[in-house]
């Protein structure tokens, strides 16, 4: 992470094997597309020395059905492992700010805008974006670097579009990966 003050930070939320491994209960239909777009954003952030926060969810119960502390599926996706000096923040709830050091790191880095990427759009990404908004950060929610799964008889795409509509209504500016990269590069 850069020592220089920065106005923007990239948050990579829950890009864990839990969402990508065959047979995993939370395998995301568009996980591969999201992974590729986040890799592009991470590469851009690293080139520009933009603060990059790797956030993962690990439950308190080691035997939990998902995100159990003892499960190999809680590890970061191989393609997005943090590099030396990049914070790896562990959370136990959907919000990335709740009971973590995220806000302290962002304040220390002089961050005013956070870029939300990761999984799932309707859970941890949505919650983190709302927490960031409530703390006074500007929020960019990356449309094609977040995704959902089917729940409650609704398709993943429907759920994702509803989240984007709600985020865009009040909490975030919804952008594409290309638009977010342009923001990181400016």
Task: State the helical fraction.
Answer: 25-40%
The first-level CATH class name: Alpha Beta
Distinct helical segment count: 5
Number of strands: 6
Q: What is the molecular shape?
A: globular
Distance between the termini: 18 Å
What are the segments in which pLDDT stays under 50 over at least 5 consecutive residues?
Answer: 1-5
Order of helices and strands: EHEEHEHEHEH
The domain tally reads: 1
How are the strands ordered across the major sheet?
3-2-1-4-5-6
Q: What fold name goes in the CATH topology slot? A: Rossmann fold
CATH superfamily: Isochorismatase-like
| Beta-strand content | 15-25%
The gyration radius over C-alpha positions equals 15 Å
Derived from helix and strand composition plus strand pairing, the structural class reads: alpha/beta
Characterize the biggest β-sheet. 6 strands, parallel
User: Which CATH architecture?
Assistant: 3-Layer(aba) Sandwich
Tell me about this structure:
- It comes from Candidatus Zymogenus saltonus.
- GO terms for molecular function: hydrolase activity.
- InterPro entries: Isochorismatase-like_dom (IPR000868), Isochorismatase-like_hydrls (IPR050272), Isochorismatase-like_sf (IPR036380).
- Residues 9-150 form the Isochorismatase-like domain.
- Keywords: Hydrolase.
- The structure is a single chain.
- The protein is an alpha/beta fold.
- The chain has a single domain (8-185), classed as Isochorismatase-like (Rossmann fold).
- 34% of the residues lie in helices and 19% in strands.
- The chain contains five helices and six strands; from the N terminus they run βαββαβαβαβα.
- It has a six-stranded parallel sheet with strand order 3-2-1-4-5-6, with helices on both faces.
- Strand 5 (138-147), helix 4 and strand 6 (173-175) form a beta-alpha-beta unit.
- Helix 1 runs parallel beside helix 5 (177-185) and helix 3 runs parallel beside helix 4 (156-171).
- The longest helix has 18 residues, at 31-48.
- The radius of gyration is 15 Å and the shape is globular.
